[in-house]
C-alpha cells in the first residue's frame, strides 16, 4: 500500500511544531502549568519528542510506535490546554474561544494519528 500524502503532512506538522520549541521556547514556557518542574527542560524534551515522532511516522518500521507516542504526547498536552483556560495570564493572550476549541482538536489529532496504525 502506498503511503498517503496526508501522513507526511502530519509528520511535517509535528516536526515544525517541535522545532518551534527551540526557536521560541519562551512562548511554550508561558503556557506550562505551575505545578510542573523545570519548564525549559520540559519544553525542549517535548520539542525533541515531536520531532522524533514526526520522523518516526514516515517509516513503516517505526510508524506504529510513533503513532502511539503521538497519542500519548497529545494526551499529556491536554493538561497544558486545560491550564491555559485557568487564568488570563496562563492563556498567553490567546482568546478563550480558541483555547476551548483546542481541546476537541487534541482528540481529533489523536484520532488522525491512530488512523495510520495499520498503514
Automatic annotation (TrEMBL):
Q: Which UniProt keywords apply?
A: Membrane, Transmembrane, Transmembrane helix
Q: What is its main location?
A: membrane
Would you indicate the residue range of the signal peptide?
none
Localization annotation = Membrane
Decide whether keyword Secreted is in the record: no
Q: Where is the Methylamine utilisation protein MauE domain?
A: 8-89
Keyword flag Transmembrane: yes
Any one Pfam family here would be MauE
- Write down the superkingdom of origin: Bacteria
Its placement in the membrane is given as: Multi-pass membrane protein
Q: Please name the InterPro entries in this protein's record.
A: Methylamine_util_MauE
**Which residue windows are coiled coil?**
none
Transmembrane spans: 6-23, 41-59, 65-85, 97-117
Q: Which PANTHER family match?
A: DOXX FAMILY MEMBRANE PROTEIN (PTHR36974:SF1), MEMBRANE PROTEIN-RELATED (PTHR36974)
Its name, as the record gives it, is MauE/DoxX family redox-associated membrane protein
Native organism is Flagellimonas halotolerans
Amino acid at each position: 500500500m502506498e503511503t498517503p500524502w496526508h501522513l507526511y503532512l502530519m509528520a511535517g506538522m509535528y516536526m515544525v511544531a517541535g522545532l518551534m520549541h527551540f526557536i521560541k521556547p519562551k512562548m511554550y514556557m508561558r503556557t506550562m502549568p505551575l505545578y510542573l518542574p523545570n519548564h525549559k527542560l520540559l519544553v525542549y524534551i517535548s520539542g525533541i519528542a515531536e520531532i522524533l515522532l514526526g520522523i518516526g511516522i514516515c517509516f513503516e518500521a517505526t510508524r506504529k510506535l510513533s503513532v502511539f507516542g503521538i497519542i500519548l504526547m497529545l494526551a499529556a498536552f491536554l493538561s497544558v490546554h486545560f491550564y491555559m483556560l485557568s487564568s488570563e495570564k496562563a492563556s498567553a493572550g490567546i482568546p478563550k474561544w480558541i483555547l476551548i476549541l483546542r481541546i476537541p482538536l487534541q482528540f481529533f489529532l489523536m484520532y488522525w494519528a491512530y488512523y495510520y496504525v495499520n498503514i
